[in-house]
Input
Amino acid sequence: MRQVSSTFTATGAAESYERMAGRWSRRLVGPFLDFSELVDDGKILDAGCGTGALTAELIERTTLAEVTGVDMSEGYIAYAREAIKSPRARFEVGDLTALDYPNGVFDQVFSQLVLLFVPDFEQAIRELKRVTKPGGRIAATTWDLIGGLVFNRIFWDVAAMLDPEAEKLRQRAFSRPLTRPSELAQAWLNAGLEEVRSGEITIRTEFLCFDDFWRPFAEGDGPIPTYVRQTDEAIRSKMEVALRRAYLGGDKDGPRSYAATAWVVSGVKSVEA
Output
């Protein structure tokens, strides 16, 4: 039986995804492209485009390039098509482990915050390499889930104290591939890419109040909201109370700002490949 292509539990509710994760993707995309040495030419693939944050920035930063966004979620693709009307952008439903494109069709490939959800990430990277032209650049970024994504860590640490099932999910989340130091860079080297550069980017995730912090967990799209919706109401109520205490931290309700660090990598496909 073929392994599932993604463990990201997308309901297709794009607005919910935006509240939970999309707003932070939009903050990360600028520094990611600054690192990645974007070239305004040819065909670009946004691999795992979600609701289109990266594609929108690629269109904004270029005047000539044609951008194709691919994602497994039909709902996210529909949202991106509606939001980004540029004739230089198109969106298609697709699987990163089995891309429906010929060899060497893209001049550049970017993948933001997706590969950590792909169990067979090595196959996905092989596919990204396959569809890239010789001499083309491939860049990616993933969250530092264990030590760098503070708001996410707050949730799982609190939930794990209240619910054994949350502890299992926390262990699964924090053992995801490509989220520890050097893992992303090593994956690029293992794939035979050249001129590999790696580093880290830190942004801020800012919340207006506790409700702005809690509601995406309760109503958003992705692994945490899926868990919260399926949790017993009594546990969910205790969780909300405990998370409020963690958020307030002895102070009154109001804005909070947490660091969020992502690993970044870039490499070039050999001209001989």
